[in-house]
Every structure is written in C-alpha cells, then in structure tokens.
Amino acid sequence: MPRCIGLIGYPLRHSVSPHFQQAALDYCGLDIRYELREVEPTGLHDAVNDLRKPQNIGANVTVPHKEAVLPLLDRVDDLAGAVGAVNTVVKDSRLMGFNTDVYGFLQALENEGHFDPQGKRVVVMGAGGAARAVCFALLQRKVMSLAVTNRTFERAGALVDALARYVEGDRRGSHDPKPRVTAFPWQSLSSADTFQGCDLIVHCTTIGMKDTPREGQSPLGLEVIPASVLVYDLVYNPSPTPLLELAQRAGARVLGGLPMLVYQGAASFELWTGREAPIGVMFEKAREILVGETT
C-alpha cells in the first residue's frame, strides 16, 4: 500500500496543491500519494485521527482549519505555537504541527514581489490562520506599522492582542523601535484615508476565491487603492483575482498567492520526505494547472 499525504480543508475544489505536490513526489521517485480530503469543521477531529493510520505520513491543513487543528495534535513546534496556526502536520510516532506559511509568505514577498518589509506600513485584511502567519512574518521583518481588519472585528482585536504580546517578548531588551499594531473596522476599507501612507496591502480572506460564495468579488474598490502600494492577494485561483485586477487598474504593483502556495508547499514537502523539494518542478506544474483552469 502506498503512503499518503492529505490536504485537509473545506472547500477544496479550487486547490492546485495536489497537482504540484504529486509532480514533486513523482519527480523524486517516491511512492506517495497526495490526496484531497474535503472536511467540514464538524469532521476535523475524525480527519486528524485518521492521520494516525499507518499509510499516512502527514498532511497540509488549509481554510478553515489552521487554528482549530492545534489542540488535536500531539505537539506543535515553537513557530506554529507562536503564530497560533498550523498548515503542515508530520506523523512519526506522533502528530507534529508546523507552520510553513510564514516562510512561504516571506519568500514570495521578497523573491517575487521584490519588497523589503522593514520600516514599511502594512494593512492586512483577515484574521484567520493565514493572516496570523502573515502578521507574525511581517513583525519578524520589523515593519513600522501593522493595521489589521476582519469582518468580525473581535477576531481582528484578538489577533492584535496576540501580536502585541509577541512584540513585547521579541523586543525585550532591544533598542529597536516597536511597531505600531492596531485593529480597525472592516467598514473602513471603503475609505481611501485608510490606506494613506500605506506601502503594502495583504489580503488574507477567501473573498474572490474560485468555487466559493464570494467568487468574483473584491474586498476593495478601485477608488481606495493607492497607485504607490504593492497589493498582495493570498488567493491564487483565479489568476488574477478581482482584487488584483482592480489594483492593476489603479496603477499599483501586484502579487498573487501562487508563489506563497508553492514556497510553503516546498517547505512542507521537505518536512514530510527529508528530501530537497524540486521547486522548479512544483512551480511549473502549479502554473500549468492554474493557467489551464482559468483560460
């Protein structure tokens, strides 16, 4: 029986991860199958327990389970614990949780977006598992300010509280200036004043994602997007997203979510297999599938 890696999330029809992960596994000659496991929130406990079966070696975890999966695992590494979200599970004798989204986000931002976050002003839309990784990554790179919003304001506030505690611990004994971390209401996204002086806008919700109720929508209107910013949409399917289409019309620079997806997937691949990920193969297959699905 071949070994298996699962992708646990809901919904998953838009996902290209199985395609590029399977291409990487095949390229390395590994008898491992990468499978979709569409799991609604009520089924998460059983899905995680299923990973303990002998044929399973791990999983990716995606929307909406990145935070809820933590208490179901045996151990979580320090980064995932600090972020409060897991996107990669590795099974040996136990189930161990990791977060490779932090690495994937920064690799894409710096390598593909050619953007150095240090000293910059950032607005983050969303407060779920992906947003948590994004915010912690940006604080690691010493942004000047970080403003977070979410449709449920309380979630944005809770994330900002966690970020503030992280900043206090991380900067203890340091003479570096502390970043300003704030939460603001979702309704403020309709005002151009919200983005005054902003250098980077990061979208971390599922608005605009293919095969979801908000497909075809954008969290921002054309009139509020400054021409001077980089707009980074973690949604990768469709490509470009409605948000990125508007950002391009506004004259802003744009970065889609596919590079982050592949970089985090490559880091996950290395955790599962102990082999160097064939990143070129993964990018080629991901782009092939995404272009094929959107033409």
Describe the structure.
The protein has 295 residues and is α/β, with parallel strands linked by helices. It folds into two domains: 3-99 and 259-294, Leucine Dehydrogenase, chain A, domain 1 (Rossmann fold, 3-Layer(aba) Sandwich), CATH 3.40.50; 103-256, Rossmann fold (3-Layer(aba) Sandwich), CATH 3.40.50. It contains nine helices and twelve strands. It has helices spanning 17-27, 44-50, 78-83, 101-112, 129-140, 153-170, 242-249, 258-273, 279-294; strands spanning 3-9, 32-38, 56-61, 75-76, 88-91, 95-98, 121-125, 145-149, 180-183, 200-203, 230-233, 253-255. A six-stranded mixed β-sheet has the order 2-1-3-5-6-4, with helices on both faces. Strands 9-8-7-10-11-12 form a six-stranded parallel β-sheet, sandwiched between helices. The protein is globular, with a radius of gyration of 19 Å. The model has no long low-confidence stretch (mean pLDDT 95).
Q: What's the β-strand tally?
A: 12
Mean pLDDT: 95
- Computed CA radius of gyration, to the nearest angstrom: 19 Å
Order of helices and strands: EHEHEEHEEHEHEHEEEHEHH
Derived structural class: alpha/beta
Q: Biggest sheet: strands side by side, in what order?
A: 2-1-3-5-6-4
Name the helicity range: 25-40%
Please count the helical segments. Answer: 9
| Main pleated-sheet profile | 6 strands, mixed
The third-level CATH topology of the largest domain is: Rossmann fold
Compute the separation of the termini in Å: 37 Å
Give the CATH superfamily of the largest domain: NAD(P)-binding Rossmann-like Domain
Runs with pLDDT <50, length 5+?
A: none
